[in-house]
Amino acid sequence: MLVQGPIREEQTLQDLIRSALRAGTPEARAELDTYMRMAAVGLAELHRSAVHIGERRVWEDEFTEVREDADRLAAAAPQLEGAATALLERLHALADENPADPAVPTHGTFRPAQVLLNKGRIGFIDFDGFCQAEPALDLALFLGKIRDIGLNTSETDDDEDESVVIEQVDRQALLDQTEAISETFLAEYERHVPISRQRIALWGALNLLTLVLHCWTKVKPERLGNTLAMIERHLRGMGLYSAARAGDAARKTRKSVATPKFRYIALANAVIASTWIDELAEMLGFLQSII
Asked: Domains of the chain (ranges plus CATH)?
């Protein structure tokens, strides 16, 4: 049994990410980068700690859970049958081509909200998900949450479950900023522990697809616009999605069979009007653009 001692806290890393994005100053970014590097070193030390407790978690099990989530949703909405098949098949093929890194002691639910900051020091909390897994599990969760924090940061939101309605052009600019923050963290981690970036991308794709499905299975359609923006950017980075091209974000969206577009605000209204099944089919249609 692990018993964690007290950890002092002035704020969390999640709080700092939000405040730095709101401030938008070089000084705020420099402070954030310092703490991101510290968090990366801390995670690397955890992964090298050789603590041999906790169950084994593997990508294949997570893949099965995501596939079952998609199947359950399709059972309730037959129009969605097979909508995620192309993406899941490509991810599985990539996983076969890129074997997992060796298992290490793993936090299991590592996110910026679980990194506490206090007078130039950091601490990690919430080890109830501690397990043995490849490092990419922790890294993908952490990096994905940075994007989510960025897209859900406003001048007034205090609840991480709140979603902010923002323009598509703003989404892309915020994603650019969060990717730069993520790269600071990941580059520092790589200075201490070798890691397969493709494996991080594979875990990240499963996490994001789960978030897309949860927009409906957990009835959170207001989060759909930001979640779609994240998964589209992620899949383009993996070379799996070609529908969105440079400049598309600045153009008015419209339906197209070859290049699916999404009516973000209309989705929430569709739920209220009890017509969300058709909108969900349109939303998941983008998965058929996997290449």
From this structure: 1-58+102-195 (3.90.1200), 60-99+196-291 (no CATH)
